[in-house]
Structure formats: structure tokens, C-alpha cells
Amino acid sequence: MKDIKTLATDIVRELEDNKIIDVEVYDLTDRSSVADFHIVSTADNMLQLESVRNYVIDLMDKSEVALKNPLEKWEGGWALLDFGDIIVHILLSERRSFYNLDNLLDYKNSISNEFKNVSNGS
Which residues lie closer than 8 Å to 17 by C-beta, 6 or more apart? Predict the structure, then answer.
């Protein structure tokens, strides 16, 4: 299996390739026993959110990383994908503003610059 940072990079690439915006990666390795990385991102609409959710699940399946939270019917503009050491949040813009996860996760822990433009290979 790939290391956690490589998996996170793969997820960020998948999100960016599918036009998901405002992708932020938070390193909580020393601050959380739940997950090492939280990836928070914004989808333009529910159709995009659902498709990218499925793409990320397929990507992680290919890397032999199972989704920890059950696939159940959901709605409401927030997809939370728990892959153990990596948790991915894909939200509609209004949900992201309302829940303010970036503030909760503490923007100072953002390491997004390490992941910028990964889809361009830079």
C-alpha cells in the first residue's frame, strides 16, 4: 500500500482534475487520534459532488484502502469519506461556509501548498 501522504496527493489530484475548488489539506498528525489528514474541498453542485465522491472511492479502492464509513443514502451537500488516516470532505459552498470546517481544523495546520497543482505534475 502507498504511504499516507502519497494517497493524500492522489486524492487532491483527483479532486483538482474534476474541477473541485478550494482544496485544503490539513495535517493533524500530532493533534488527532482520528486521522492524520483532513482534505476539505468545495463542489459547485450536487451532481459534481456525487460523481467526485464516487471517483475518490474508486481511486482508494484501487489502492486497496477501504472506506470506513458505510455507503448509505445521504444528501445535504456534504460528503464525508473516512479512509482511516485520511478523511475527505466534499461540500457545497453554502455548507462549507455554514460549518466552517477550515476554522475548526485550524487553518494554521494547512499544508495545502505542498499539494498545489499536483494535477499539473509540479
Answer: 119
DSSP code of 110? B
Q: What is the pTM of this model?
A: 0.87
Q: What is the spatial order of strands in the sheet that 21-27 belongs to?
A: 21-27, 37-43, 86-92, 78-82
Confidence at 104, pLDDT banded by 50, 70, 90: confident
Q: Which three cell numbers stand for residue 33?
A: 487520534
For residue range 30-74, list pLDDT tens digits in order: 777 778 899 999 999 999 999 999 999 999 999 999 999 866 566
- Ordered by start, the domain boundaries in the chain are 4-116
Extract the C-alpha cell encoding 2: 502507498
CATH of domain 4-116: 3.30.460.10
